Input
Amino acid sequence: MSDDFILKTNELVKEFKGFVAVSGVNLSVKRGQIHALIGPNGAGKTTVFNLLTKFHIPTSGQILFNGKDITQSKPAQIARQGIVRSFQISATFPNLTVMENVRIALQRATGTSMHFWRSERILNQLNDRAMTLLDEVDLASMANLTAVELPYGRKRALEIATTLAMNPELMLLDEPTQGMGHEDVDRVTQLIKKVSANRTILMVEHNMNVVASIADTISVLQRGQIIAEGPYETVSKNPQVLEAYMGTADNELEGAHG
Output
């Protein structure tokens, strides 16, 4: 049944000068799901993301994408195969318009990113696709604003649009709601739910309300190891998970779903 899983890791290990940041992680991400990776600070979540996108090379273990071993692949090869990561810190061009930001991402996807001298007519052919993507993330009405003018939550929506422009089969979202007020969190949560149609999403997220409301499967990391996995209802009652979160923000798990 390996077809059910778009991404699998086998005994993934990452050591930094004797410190084991990721220790024997076996992750199975089902095709078409929203899969959340959670855990206390320092649990190894970002290191796992860095291993999956090849910013770090595993010390040992294996990464399979669509059944193919990508453990030794380079970051650019990973992106071409369909794994695209949206960064924790907003990665847009602040002085370009919202439309231009998406158009550049589309150029990257079509291999014309260095052709800035190409005629406006050729670039305009990308506009329809760019507007479709902006429509998908509810930014069509802001297409002509510069990115720097966007409110914080809308910047994250633009970042998701530029990620979608790369046509990902698997989207990795790194703390998509970090630093947001309640209204923006709700908007971006709904946006993630919306763009997850026909895609698989793996996300690192601290906000338990977000995780509880949209994640199909949750993997909980502690000290570089997965200590629990399953739907929110199961994971949130796991004694090991509750213990791992004790003392953090009034026990985030207890109040999350209320």
About this structure: The first strand starts at residue 5 and ends at 16. Confidence is low (pLDDT under 50) at residues 247-251.
